[in-house]
Amino acid sequence: MSQAAYQPSMLDLTDTAPCLGPLGGVRRHPLGRGAWVDHLPAWVRGSDEVLDVLLRDVPWRAERRTMYDTEVDVPRLLCWYADGRPLPHPVLTTAREALTRHYAAELGEPFVTAGMCHYRDGRDSVAWHGDTQGRSAHADTMVAIVSFGSPRPLLLRPRGGGASLRFPLGHGDLVVMGGSCQRTWEHAIPKTSRPVGPRVSVQFRPVGVA
Ligand SMILES: O=C(O)CCC(=O)C(=O)O
Ligand SMILES: [Fe+2]
After folding, report:
1. Per the CB 3.0–4.6 Å rule, which of 18, 60, 74, 129 could disulfide with 46?
2. 128: CA distance to ligand 1 center in Å?
């Protein structure tokens, strides 16, 4: 086979190292109350390798939390990448840079930290909450989530009551919660009795937001 005839198969995305699609295709969903969600399915291509690396190389930690006077297991594994800590896969560094560039005018500061959650199966979850530790308690900000592994829905509901919205988060998908979202809405990843494999979420935030 000539070199020229061989070229097209070399473009097969499933064969290439992980890379990012264009952010131009991101779709904004205004939620009201100054909150919005941006959604871009399959932003990261070649995500199998990223998931493998995340499951293997991140020093996952189980945590316990006090709830109503009792200590309970946090139902997911965690790891926090503070400013300056190298990320476990280079495509995540590229993703953070691309997000910083894409949202520069609107956000006015870079994405810096990376929080990681590992949902081992359908029993792992995150309960309703807003990311309101730090500046996000009283100022608009953004939290960008890249999801790897088994699809799980991200649910959002307005604080004070109202119907919830559901964003399916699949392998390589991007979701960005922006504006007042952390203060005026809550989000959750519910448990499921369906058989689901592991999921890792990577949350990029500006400094001082958690
Ligand atoms: O797993 C996710 O996509 C969401 C995680 C989350 O909401 C958080 O860690 O604050
Ligand atoms: Fe959150």
Report:
1. 18
2. 10
